[in-house]
Automatic annotation (TrEMBL):
Locations listed in the record: Cell outer membrane
Membrane-topology descriptor: Multi-pass membrane protein
InterPro entries given in the database record: Beta-barrel_TonB_sf (IPR036942), CarboxyPept-like_regulatory (IPR008969), Oar-like_b-barrel (IPR057601), TonB-dep_rcpt-like (IPR039426)
Alphabetical GO biological process terms: siderophore transmembrane transport
Principal location: membrane
PANTHER family: OAR PROTEIN, TONB-DEPENDENT OUTER MEMBRANE RECEPTOR
Protein name, per record: Outer membrane receptor protein involved in Fe transport
Leader peptide range in chain numbering: 1-33
One of the record's GO cellular component terms: cell outer membrane
Alphabetized UniProt keyword annotations: Cell outer membrane, Membrane, Receptor, Signal, Transmembrane, Transmembrane beta strand, Transport
């Protein structure tokens, strides 16, 4: 597929998506700068020690005075071409993260071009993320070179204690929940938003967080998303196979478990790359991952006493096996020196049994899930001119996600004690989605301009909704006027006296659409060799809010080289970041805005309830609950700004210290505008409607943070990255589905945000890397999250059960802290010792997670009147050992 074809398809897609897209006849994409025209060409190939070509390597041409006269990047075949301005002696330097920088001398004669070069990059003894040094060719002021970032490379994934090779979860520890937004944290794969990594872990080149925090290219702030760069195909056959194994016999005892349950995990993963039929211009990359995990969930609940269980303690291990099969196949072709393209198919099929079971959720309330996803990805690179490069991507996705109950029947919620009966979660979700992305980078004098457009979602979604068909009963404790406990929730459940009831009837199939379009322009201006500024503007459109769809977000950042001798760089910036809602509010409006799906809700404040409900209530006569958008609702946005100071330490390390501020404006919340009125909270103003949920943009959030970050090679004994953050976030809403306790006083909820975490520390590092006596280290320590004390009652008659004791503020308590030490030892044995650089290797490793077996609580019982109120009732997994074998050729 040619570049012009992809651009045509992409433009046609946008023409169908929105009026904004209809005005775009050509949508440019990402790019790479090249040097201006010159008299003689310096050409060559960059490869690794085994002879495999290395695409994406940075190559620079430096003259005898030390001035860089040209830069470029190797193409899909590992080749480069630069133009020398005049005859003379030059130095060519090639670099890429994970490899040692290599140089080669070349002489350009007055006539003709020199012979093609072959530059070999040796694998770095430690991962080095080059920032800026006085003697390097890297621009210290470039925004993507900021020191306040976390980077994990393919070498890290081999050397560090990463649980299950799950690098996305591992790097997720370095995200900031305050930057996530309504739709959650983001994932970018090769510059395109994605649901998951479409390649296996061994086919990943690098993972970044906060690479360019104030870039207009992204709608999220830097700490709100993970960026994955996958490996390129090679022109020689190479591969890797990994096998990971864990067994409960090697683990410590799980907290709150009545006995050590049997668990075993087997993970098979790898990749293979090389030419197609020995072609020099067509290459492939195949990756796969198969995970078989026989796990157990620990239930620790209190149920009604019985003759064989007089204390009502229900503590069992419940099998919760999972299976996950993923593979991808990509073929790339180099059409010319200016044009290359690739096509990839990626597949996932994952199943989970007894999901949701554990802690206070009984086995009968579990559910089974399946996730099936198919992705077809087209990508095209086209060099428009020596100073412009266009990149375009189109992704077609199909997902199928059925959910089925383990047991059918009504759900029983006994607040503070247990959830049983049934999950009431039967549903099937299907999505057909189109993503597209196109960007251009254009270098002109001191300007490096980037502009482009993206289509994160142009999707058709279907929800077949059979949830809560049999009803949900909620039982709460009873208190007298002084707040003294009269009857427990268990006693009310035994008396068949629920405090709330809900169920759904009516239409079950809903079709809705999620559409989002974005565009941006930014210009990194090199005003001085030691100072650059990058202004930018982003545009975002989404179909959720009819009256506030066109959002413009200005961004600005700068970098000032304060002391080049020590690589001391002051960076700063700020910008506006508009929120996205995700699909949740869209499906809620599709189901409940016009009562197509009748959500029936009833509180004991309105009338006495019973179990079963048919004995005392005619449910066919109950009014439905509705969902609506508040008049004048706006798109929420964050204002974020900060400063940081980077300095080189050790051999090739960087320390960054910085502060940032965050303010959320027009933040989402939900209000029941038909809630019963005080003081008795028994009668709804409109008797023809039950709950009338109004989605509003009236919340506020403020936050501040201090970050201390390190990354790089300190000396030959240690390399790695670490991130410490002190932060404080406060708000008066917990998001678009959150309700205040009193619907008449929605602004009386100011308190710590639910994700507020004062201290957050994470470190990954390698000690004595590449040596037999090596050690990979992971250290994580976090303060606890806040939680709210709840009465467990429906004090306000709205069936929300989120009331707090009188005078107790929201999120007034702090949950358990977290501390974890992970270690890994491993070594790669060369199978052909005489071929040092080209020898296949067999690697063996052992990792231990939570080496000290530190107890880390994961849940606190928040309901007053329950037997475990204020106590930790579940915990994170104990110490676990992971054995691994790796074959690389």
């Amino acid at each position: 597929m040619t570049c012009s074809t992809i651009r045509f398809v992409f433009a046609a897609t946008l023409l169908c998506s929105s009026a904004f897209a209809q005005s775009a006849s050509l949508i440019p994409s990402s790019a790479l700068a090249a040097s201006p025209a010159a008299s003689a060409a310096v050409t060559g190939t960059v490869e690794d020690p085994s002879g495999a070509i290395i695409p994406g390597a940075q190559v620079s041409l430096t003259d005898a005075t030390g001035a860089t006269v040209s830069t470029t990047t190797t193409d899909a075949s590992g080749s480069f071409r630069m133009l020398a301005p005049q005859p003379g002696a030059y130095s060519v330097a090639a670099s890429l993260a994970g490899f040692q920088t290599a140089t080669a001398a070349v002489t350009v004669a007055a006539s003709g071009s020199p012979a093609a070069l072959t530059i070999t990059l040796s694998v770095a003894a430690a991962v080095q993320q080059v920032t800026v040094s006085a003697g390097s060719q890297v621009d210290l002021t470039a925004s993507e070179n900021n020191g306040d970032t976390a980077v994990m490379t393919s070498s890290d994934l081999k050397d560090l204690p990463v649980f299950d090779n799950d690098f996305v979860t591992a790097m997720g520890s370095f995200l900031d929940s305050g930057d996530a937004g309504t739709a959650g944290s983001g994932l970018m794969v090769d510059g395109v938003e994605a649901n998951r990594s479409v390649v296996s872990p061994s086919a990943v080149q690098e993972v970044h967080i906060n690479q360019d925090p104030y870039s207009a290219q992204y709608y999220r702030p830097g700490r709100g998303q993970i960026e994955i760069i996958t490996k390129q195909s090679a022109d020689a056959y190479h591969g890797q196979f990994n096998f990971l194994f864990r067994d409960s016999a090697l683990n410590a005892q799980q907290d709150f478990s009545p006995s050590k349950p049997f668990e075993q995990r087997r993970i098979y993963e790898g990749n293979l790359t090389g030419p197609v039929l020995h072609s020099k211009n067509t290459m492939f990359l195949f990756s796969f991952n198969r995970a078989e995990e026989d796990l157990n969930a620990v239930v620790n609940a209190t149920v009604a006493p019985a003759p064989d269980n007089p204390n009502g303690i229900f503590n069992v291990n419940v099998p919760a096996p999972t299976r996950d099969t993923e593979f991808s196949f990509r073929i790339g072709h180099q059409f010319s020196d200016k044009n290359s393209a690739s096509v990839m198919y990626a597949f996932q099929d994952a199943t989970n049994r007894n999901s949701g079971v554990g802690n206070q959720t009984l086995p009968e309330a579990g559910y089974n899930t399946e996730t099936r996803e198919d992705d077809l990805i087209f990508h095209d690179d086209y060099i428009l001119s020596p100073t412009k490069l266009n990149q375009a991507s189109i992704v077609l996705e199909r997902s199928y996600d059925p959910v089925s109950d383990v047991q059918e029947g009504p759900q029983i919620r006994v607040n503070g004690n247990y959830t049983g009966g049934s999950a009431q979660a039967d549903q099937v979700n299907t999505e057909y989605n189109l993503r597209a992305n196109e960007m251009v980078t254009w270098t002109q004098g001191p300007h490096t301009m980037k502009f482009g457009m993206n289509l994160p979602h142009f999707s058709r979604r279907v929800r077949d909704d059979l949830t809560n068909q049999d009803g949900t009963y909620t039982f709460s404790p009873t208190y007298d006027a002084t707040g003294t406990l009269v009857t427990t929730a268990i006693q009310n459940q035994q008396a068949n006296s629920p405090s709330g009831f809900s169920m759904q009837q009516g239409q079950t199939r809903f079709v809705y659409h999620q559409q989002e379009v974005g565009g941006f322009f930014q210009d990194q201006i090199k005003l001085k060799p030691w100072f650059s500024v990058t202004p930018g503007l982003r545009y975002d459109w989404q179909n959720f809010l009819g009256g506030d769809r066109n959002n413009f977000s200005p961004r600005l950042s700068f970098a000032w080289v304060w002391d080049q001798a020590h690589d001391l760089v002051l960076r700063g910036g700020g910008g506006i970041y508009y929120d996205r809602t995700g699909s949740g509010p869209l499906v809620d409006l599709a189901r409940y805005q016009f009562a197509k799906l009748r959500l029936l809700q009833l509180s004991a404040n309105q009338q006495p309830l019973c179990f079963p409900i048919a004995d005392c209530v005619d449910t066919t006569a109950l009014p439905p609950s509705l969902v609506e958008l508040a008049p004048g609702i706006k798109t929420p946005y964050q204002i974020q700004y900060g400063l940081s100071l980077d300095r080189r330490v050790g051999e090739k390390g960087t320390v960054s210290i910085g502060g940032r501020m965050n303010r959320g404006v027009d933040v989402f919340r939900s209000i029941d505008v038909n809630a019963p009125l005080g003081p008795d909270y028994t009668t709804r103003p409109n008797p023809n409607v039950s709950q009338l949920r109004q989605i509003q943009s009236a919340g506020t959030q403020i936050g501040s943070a201090l970050d201390i970050n390190y990354r790089g090679r300190f000396n030959k004994r240690f390399t790695g990255f670490a991130w410490y953050t002190w932060s404080h976030y406060a708000n008066n809403t917990d998001g678009i589905t959150w309700f205040p306790q009193n619907q008449q006083e929605p602004n009386a909820e100011w308190g710590p945000a639910s994700w507020d975490q004062r201290n957050h520390f994470g470190l990954y590092g390698s000690i004595n890397p590449q040596h037999l006596l090596n050690l990979g280290v992971g250290v994580f320590a976090n303060s606890g999250h806040p939680w709210s004390v709840l009465t467990g009652t429906d004090s306000f008659g709205d069936n929300l059960f989120n009331a707090r004791p009188e005078g107790v503020a929201r999120n007034s308590e702090i949950g358990p802290d977290y501390a974890d030490l992970d270690l890994r030892w491993g070594y790669d044995f060369k199978l052909e010792p005489k071929e040092i650089d080209k020898s296949p290797t067999l690697g063996l490793s052992i990792s231990s997670f939570d080496v000290l077996n530190h107890p880390n609580g994961s849940f606190v019982d928040t309901t007053e009147g329950s037997p475990d109120f204020g106590q930790v009732t579940s915990a994170e997994p104990p110490r676990r050992l992971q054995l691994a074998m790796r074959f690389n050729f």
